[in-house]
From TrEMBL:
<protein>
    <recommendedName>
        <fullName>Phosphoribosylglycinamide formyltransferase</fullName>
        <ecNumber>2.1.2.2</ecNumber>
    </recommendedName>
</protein>
<dbReference type="InterPro" id="IPR036477">
    <property type="entry name" value="Formyl_transf_N_sf"/>
</dbReference>
<dbReference type="InterPro" id="IPR002376">
    <property type="entry name" value="Formyl_transf_N"/>
</dbReference>
<dbReference type="GO" id="GO:0004644">
    <property type="term" value="F:phosphoribosylglycinamide formyltransferase activity"/>
</dbReference>
<feature type="site" description="Raises pKa of active site His">
    <location>
        <position position="145"/>
    </location>
</feature>
<dbReference type="GO" id="GO:0005829">
    <property type="term" value="C:cytosol"/>
</dbReference>
<keyword id="KW-0808">Transferase</keyword>
<keyword id="KW-0658">Purine biosynthesis</keyword>
<dbReference type="Pfam" id="PF00551">
    <property type="entry name" value="Formyl_trans_N"/>
</dbReference>
<comment type="function">
    <text>Catalyzes the transfer of a formyl group from 10-formyltetrahydrofolate to 5-phospho-ribosyl-glycinamide (GAR), producing 5-phospho-ribosyl-N-formylglycinamide (FGAR) and tetrahydrofolate.</text>
</comment>
<dbReference type="GO" id="GO:0006189">
    <property type="term" value="P:'de novo' IMP biosynthetic process"/>
</dbReference>
<feature type="domain" description="Formyl transferase N-terminal">
    <location>
        <begin position="2"/>
        <end position="182"/>
    </location>
</feature>
<dbReference type="InterPro" id="IPR004607">
    <property type="entry name" value="GART"/>
</dbReference>
<comment type="pathway">
    <text>Purine metabolism; IMP biosynthesis via de novo pathway; N(2)-formyl-N(1)-(5-phospho-D-ribosyl)glycinamide from N(1)-(5-phospho-D-ribosyl)glycinamide (10-formyl THF route): step 1/1.</text>
</comment>
<feature type="binding site">
    <location>
        <begin position="90"/>
        <end position="93"/>
    </location>
    <ligand>
        <name>(6R)-10-formyltetrahydrofolate</name>
    </ligand>
</feature>
<feature type="binding site">
    <location>
        <position position="107"/>
    </location>
    <ligand>
        <name>(6R)-10-formyltetrahydrofolate</name>
    </ligand>
</feature>
<feature type="active site" description="Proton donor">
    <location>
        <position position="109"/>
    </location>
</feature>
């Protein structure tokens, strides 16, 4: 069974969706460890409740970002993980780490990439007057939030929405699309080649797979 390692910094709602999907057999894989860069991440509690080993890597214990990422990478290599899933990991991974695990790192980002990379994507979309927002699962490459898009989910933004309304809509979608993409990867249907995403051997379009 394929081994998955999840990296997170916060709530872990996406982690929970992945745990649940593994438990009901919707993902043919095992979450071998959950790694956090924050001791207070609620995701760590979710992992422990599911009997998944956890590891904490705090920046203050390392001389630099690369040293920290080297330690995380060595830990992941030791486990022999097939896939690294970023689920709200709010720290930019250094280039050597990304290159070490090229094609084996997925991220979920709360915007319709390439729109709104980085932080505060909800505020950005609403301030721009957008009528829709969404979330993107993509392969991780060294440039932030720029790797090949695999799958997106769109949600509407209504005139009287607050940020929390749009965020709730987006997060609900994330819990559906991330387990699906993880299953595509662990079942061998999805891969990255020369920074492009392929599903069932077919090159995915720039906005990813769309089920019409
Ligand atoms: C998710 O909404 C995810 O899209 C976002 O963090 C949230 C984590 O929620 N990721 C990023 O912003 C990465 N740039 P969760 O901890 O409840 O899964």
């Amino acid at each position: 069974m394929k081994k998955i390692v999840v990296l997170l910094s916060g709530q872990g709602a996406n982690l929970q969706a992945l745990i649940d999907a593994c438990q009901r057999g919707a993902i043919d894989g095992k979450i071998a460890a959950v790694i956090s860069n924050r001791a207070d991440a609620y995701g760590l509690i979710r992992a422990r409740e599911a009997d998944i080993p956890t590891a904490l890597f705090e920046r203050s214990n390392y001389s630099g970002n690369q040293a920290m990422d080297k330690a995380i990478g060595d830990f992941i290599a030791e486990i022999g993980a097939d896939l690294i899933v970023l689920a709200g990991y709010m720290k930019i991974l250094s280039q050597p780490f990304v290159e070490r695990f090229a094609g084996r790192i997925l991220n979920i980002h709360p915007s319709l990439l390439p729109k709104y990379k980085g932080l505060n994507t909800y505020q950005q979309a609403m301030q721009a007057g957008d009528s829709e927002h969404g979330t993107t699962v993509h392969f991780v490459t060294p440039e932030l939030d720029s790797g090949a898009v695999i799958l997106q989910a769109r949600v509407p933004i209504f005139a009287d929405d607050e940020v929390v309304d749009v965020e709730a809509r987006v997060k609900e979608q994330e819990l559906h699309i991330y387990p699906l993409v993880v299953q595509w990867f662990v079942s061998g249907r999805l891969h990255m080649e020369q920074d492009r995403a392929y599903l069932d051997g077919r090159l995915l379009p720039p906005s990813g797979y769309a089920d019409e």
